[in-house]
Each structure stands twice: as structure tokens, then as C-alpha cells.
Amino acid sequence: MNVGNAVNPIDVKALGKVAVLLGGRSAEREVSLMSGTGVLAALKSKGVDAHAFDPAERDLSELKRDGFDRVFIALHGRFGEDGTVQGALELLGIPYTGSGVMASSVAMDKLMTKRIWIAEGLPTPAWRQVHSAAETRAAFEALGSPMIVKPVREGSTIGLTKVMTLEQCDSAYALASGQDPMVMCEQFIAGDEVTIPVLGTGAAARALPVIRIVAPDGNYDYQHKYFTDDTQYLVPSGLPEGEEAAIQALVLKAFRALDCRGWARADVMIDAATRKPWLLEINTSPGMTGHSLVPMSARATGLSYEDLCLTVLATASLDNAKA
Length: 323
Prior knowledge:
- Strands 8, 9, 10, 11, 12 and 13 form a six-stranded antiparallel β-sheet that branches. The chain has a four-stranded antiparallel β-sheet with strand order 4-7-5-6. It has a three-stranded parallel β-sheet with strand order 2-1-3, with helices on one face.
- The chain contains eleven helices and 13 strands.
- The chain is an alpha+beta fold and about 325 residues long.
- It has three domains: about 15-95, Rossmann fold, CATH 3.40.50.20; about 105-125 and about 190-305, D-amino Acid Aminotransferase, Chain A, domain 1, CATH 3.30.470.20; about 125-185, ATP-grasp fold, A domain (Dna Ligase, domain 1, 2-Layer Sandwich), CATH 3.30.1490.
């Protein structure tokens, strides 16, 4: 993961003309615009011929017409992180950052992610898929309180409710199903909330330092993620060294189990009583805003925001590159 050094320098000119995909049509458009604006400025500061490209305003076919050589995907959520844009770029033959079509699609679907992790013997909290408020109430009876109710294919805690009582189940289901017809209920794990970025692909992938998140009243919601400064992000995490290393190893297994590549960020809860880590989800197009966590963790290793963007861009590839 060397950046612009004598051992393994990145040839900026060889990266060619770069489109930074930002905005898009998902519920996370606002955050994507912030991420993409930051990435664009960073790449330009490193001498990259980078240009903003909003798929909500321009047809993706224009990428080919306008001679773009590679794409940095700074889109979040559906129509950007779920395999759809990746599939279009595969057809256009333009290398892109992040995971391929299948890994992006699976990682966006929290149910499919859990099924694969379970099949691989990786720990993830108990869950139920629900199709109605009545099924949500039944899940609450089975999983206990508190319980998380959330859309299966959304991010940034959009549509998520922490349910404490049976009476909250109806409104929680209504909120989640308003974002996605697929809704899941998940056992709540009380303890430390941490997130771990990954850079690289396959055997070369490495986990960056663990970030421990301390949000007001334990409520790490959309507002606290992006628009306030009252959430604490602890790097170093303050966890025992052996515990941090074990969590990093677990996240690498989770990353590889889904066949992710390039970069990602996994969210994990550590049970306060047992100290067992539980995998929640993995984000294959992580945020790159001023409040985002991948840049924060990278800085702890000496990797600046600008060099992080350049490093990720250099990993752009295709599932089906020409032989």
C-alpha cells in the first residue's frame, strides 16, 4: 500500500482521465456529494486529471464518449454501491474502485451478507426477515429488547429504529418499509461499537486501525454520523492489543468471504459481557466526508486523505478485464 514512494510509486499520469461518481439517486445523495467533493479535490491536488460526474444528471454512457479511463465511485447506497453501477461500468469496460458486481450487490443486502457469514462460520447477531408489523412484533418476542429494525438495502442508519417496547414495532416497521420493501429485525448487542476499514485485495488486503465510536446516549444515527461534532471517535481505540488484532483478523475474513476488493469498512459490535465481536455489515463504498471514518483510521497509520484517495484510485479494476 505504498503511496508515491521510491519502493512502489503511483504513476499519476498513467491513471489517465478520471471520473469521480458522486450524488446519484439514493437516499444517501447528500452524503455522496460531500464524499465526492472531497475526493475530487484530493485527487486534483495530487495532479490527477479528475472530473465530477453525477449519474443523476448525466447518462453513464457519457463516460465512454468523453474518454474516461477509470472511475472513483463515491456513490453511497442503492444505484451506486449495490452492483448496478458496477455492472454498467463492466459493460463500458471502464475500471472502477471498490468491489465488483457480485460483492457489491451482496454486501448491500444485509440478509445475504449474514447468510454468507453464517455459512463461513463468522459471528453475526441473530435476525429475522419480516414482511409486516405483526411479524415485527413476533420478532421482538423472539429476539428480545432492545431490537434493531432496519431496511435490508439501505445505509447510514436510514430507516433504522432501536425498538425498546412492543408498542414501537408498528412504527419501526413502517419507517423501515418506507425505505425498502425488504425489512429485517436484528438482535441488539450491547457494548462497544467499532468500525474497521480494509485496504487492498485478496491476500494483500490489510485491516487499518480499529475506531471505537462513542455517540451521545449510544445513539449513532444519521445526524450524529455526518452533521454534528458530539460523537467521539477513538483512534487508538483503547481496546486491549490482542482484542483489536482479533477483530481486525475477523474483519479480513468477512471481507474475503464476500470477495470484496479495493477497500471497504466493516461495522462490529463487541458484547460488553463476553467481549465477543459480532459483525453487523460491510460498506463497499465508504464515506469520505469530513466526518468519515476510513480517512480517520488511515491517518493513524500516516496515510493522508489525499494519499488515501490516490491509493484507492490506483486499485480500480474490472471483474472481467480483457485478457
